[in-house]
Write a structure and sequence with these properties.
Strand order of the largest sheet: 8-5-6-10-9
Helix content: 10-25%
CATH class of the largest domain: Alpha Beta
Radius of gyration: 19 Å
Structural class: alpha+beta
Number of domains: 2
Number of helices: 2
Distance between the termini: 63 Å
Strand content: 25-35%
CATH architecture of the largest domain: Roll
Order of helices and strands: EEEHEEEEHEEE
CATH topology of the largest domain: CPE0013-like fold
């Protein structure tokens, strides 16, 4: 049996910023998550190790509104490897005002299955 593989992460689940160690065995199953101070840390360590995901917050062009840019965010986290594609899709997006906070401005952005919503009303 070989040495266990240990990966290190900085938890962003809460303001504590715990330094996590995730140990996996030879078959890549997680054996233990160490270093967390709250349950969010343990969950974050497992997710970051197996399926890292990120929320995306940015702005998109808006026509017919008092401002030229509309703040938006993904309604849920997207796979970390898809963040660039999401940002590129949103860079090309232009919406028509008026828009209410919470309105979906892009459904299934970049094929991720996640919608993008307005975080401010503009019109």
């Amino acid at each position: 049996m070989s040495e266990p593989n240990i990966s290190h992460y900085l938890c962003i689940g809460c303001p504590l910023g715990c330094r996590l160690e995730v140990e996996e065995d030879d078959s890549h199953d997680i054996v233990e998550v160490r270093g967390w101070s709250c349950k969010k840390g343990e969950r974050y360590g497992r997710e970051e190790h197996t399926d890292p995901r990120r929320m995306v917050s940015t702005t998109v062009r808006i026509e017919g509104a008092a401002l030229a840019r509309l703040p938006v965010k993904t309604a849920d986290s997207v796979p970390k490897g898809e963040v660039q594609a999401v940002c590129e899709a949103l860079r090309r997006l232009s919406v028509e005002g008026p828009v209410k906070m919470g309105d979906v401005v892009a459904a299934d952005v970049a094929g991720t299955g996640v919608d993008v919503v307005a975080t401010r009303s503009l019109g």
